[in-house]
Q: What sequence folds into this?
């Protein structure tokens, strides 16, 4: 397994790591695509790119936890209607691999696709077998996903009815869902989702490996190039869906004619020595010019950084981070919320004071940390 040079902060809401996807897309463009365009194609380049795709899925699996799983399965930036049909279980649908393969072999006469002109019957039969097995695996995972969702709904409405009709307390849908994620009795549903996500990523890795084993070096390079362009082709992943994101800027893509030494293009990593990580720090150290912050006190002990973050984020889109202070693993019942926009922070200072979070009225005040 590749030794990735970064580890998630368990107290940081996962949606604050959405930049990870953008870094991955840029890495693919700058460091993987030039290798796949080299002539003649080299198997070492194909192996390196495959290892980086494996590293990408290993990284996602490392993030998987009860608190992060909903962000992983439904990333905030992957809600554009024109992109969702190619997504399944938190990332690209494994069926895409087979659709891409068929698209290659159905484009006769193209010079760049000459590698697909002659395919053996055993190879086609093997690809069909892999596809059939993949469909069965995906169907099983989706069925488990549905069952986990039903468990979650059971827990949700138990909490909803109890808070509204037994305790006579105001509570939002988001707050209720957050309570279910930390409830030990219903936590099994969240654990199921984590396992499903991890298994889906393992399936993507194994299917890609099996397909490539049936291809020659040229076919493998073309196939991997197609996959990498899918990773790089999503809309700008750091933009909120509330703001129509611009197309991903591909102006920095290294063109064939501009990269005579494609094995080691400018800013590329040495494929023989270094695993995937972006040229810039994935999660840079805390900057000197901190965003404006808000103190939040009188928190219920069940409030986690994710719950606090989502509670404010649903009203103020400039929220960037939330933190709940602990001692010995137990909440100290206060924390901080960071905003990128001073105006949102000033509104939250007055509007959120006394609001109910997990059954308790919170207290807000100015802060610097």
A:
């Amino acid at each position: 397994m590749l030794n990735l040079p970064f580890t998630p902060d368990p107290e940081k809401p996962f949606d604050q790591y959405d930049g990870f996807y953008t870094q991955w897309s840029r890495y693919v463009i700058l460091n993987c695509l030039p290798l796949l365009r080299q002539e003649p194609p080299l198997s070492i380049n194909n192996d390196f790119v495959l290892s980086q795709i494996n590293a990408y899925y290993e990284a996602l699996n490392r993030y998987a936890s009860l608190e992060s799983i909903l962000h992983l399965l439904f990333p905030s930036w992957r809600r554009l209607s024109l992109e969702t049909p190619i997504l399944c279980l938190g990332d690209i649908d494994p069926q895409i691999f087979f659709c891409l393969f068929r698209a290659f072999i159905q484009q006769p006469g193209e010079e760049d696709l000459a590698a697909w002109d002659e395919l053996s019957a055993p190879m086609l039969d093997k690809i069909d077998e892999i596809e059939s097995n993949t469909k069965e695996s995906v169907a099983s995972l989706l069925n488990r996903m549905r069952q986990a969702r039903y468990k979650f709904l059971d827990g949700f409405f138990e909490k909803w009815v109890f808070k509204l009709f037994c305790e006579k307390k105001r509570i939002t849908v988001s707050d209720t869902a957050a309570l279910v994620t930390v409830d030990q009795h219903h936590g099994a549903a969240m654990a199921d989702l984590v396992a499903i996500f991890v298994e889906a990523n393992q399936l993507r890795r194994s299917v890609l490996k099996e397909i490539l084993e049936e291809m020659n070096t040229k076919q493998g390079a073309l196939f991997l190039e197609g996959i990498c362009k899918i990773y790089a082709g999503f809309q700008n992943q750091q933009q909120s869906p509330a703001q129509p994101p611009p197309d991903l800027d591909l102006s920095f893509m290294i063109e064939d004619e501009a990269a005579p030494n494609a094995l080691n293009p400018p800013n590329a990593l040495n494929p023989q020595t270094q695993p995937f990580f972006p040229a810039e720090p994935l999660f840079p150290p805390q900057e000197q010019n901190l965003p404006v912050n808000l103190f939040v006190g009188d928190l219920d002990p069940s409030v986690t950084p994710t719950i606090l973050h989502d509670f404010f984020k649903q009203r103020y889109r400039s929220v960037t981070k939330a933190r709940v202070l602990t001692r010995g693993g137990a909440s100290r019942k206060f924390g901080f919320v960071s905003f990128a926009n001073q105006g949102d922070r000033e509104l939250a200072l007055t509007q959120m004071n006394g609001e109910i979070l997990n059954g308790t009225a919170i207290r807000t005040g100015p802060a610097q940390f």
